[in-house]
Structure formats: C-alpha cells, structure tokens
Amino acid sequence: MEFEYTDQLLAALIPLGLTVIFHGLGMDVVRRCYKRFRPHVLNARYIGLRAFFMIGIVAIMLVTHFFGVVIWAGFYFLAGILTSAQDAMLFSMLSYTTIGAPHTLHGHWIGFGGFEAMTGMLMFGWSTAVLAAVVQKIHAIEE
C-alpha cells in the first residue's frame, strides 16, 4: 500500500523550496539592515530611533511571510487545486499561519494544506530566532 501523502509531499517540495529560498533572502535583508544601521542604533540618544528600527525589522519579516503565503497561493491556483486566486490567497493565509481554513481541499489534495502549515510554523520559528537575536543585541547595547 502506497503512503497516502507521498504525491502531496513531493508536490509540496516546490512551494516549500521557493518559500525557504525567499525566506532566507528576507532574513539576509534583516541581517544586512542590522549591520548597516547598527552604528546609528548604538549611538541613538532617543528610544524612538530604536523603536523605529525594530518596526522596520518586523515589517521586513512580515513582508517575507506574506510572500511565503503568495508562493503557496500561486501554487494552489496554477496547479488548479483552487480555481479562484482570491480563494487560494485566503486558504493559503489561513494555512500558513496555522489558523486553519474554513474549508478543506478535495480529492487528491485533501491534506496538502498541512504541508503549508508545517512550512509556515518553521518559517515563523526562523523569524522568531532572528528577531530574538536582534533584540538581544539591542538590549546588550543598552547595558
């Protein structure tokens, strides 16, 4: 008996791989921003500059995650799994964030959203680790 999700897992490697590549690029942008603006954050007299810097870092991460959602939604739509781009975006947003979509995929693709949810959890974990490292360095600056 063939494992039920083998084909789905293999198909998931496409959006998963693209998501990981794009997320890595986004986290590299965060790293470069930190490196570029570190002297300004170090010498900031006002906490507002540090807050603005952190808002920028979080915004980069949010955009990175949004593009992860777009990658998966694009796959759903282009593969014909969902026939509406709007439905694909909604399903993807709810799956990626692990909220859970109000409907399920049908037929051969019934469990495919779970692979997106697993990918989303890992990407959020990656972002959390990067954000924690940045915050730790900023607090170390203040001491």
TrEMBL record:
This protein's UniProt keywords: Membrane, Transmembrane, Transmembrane helix
Membrane spanning residue stretches: 12-30, 51-79, 109-135
Protein's name in the database: Potassium channel domain-containing protein
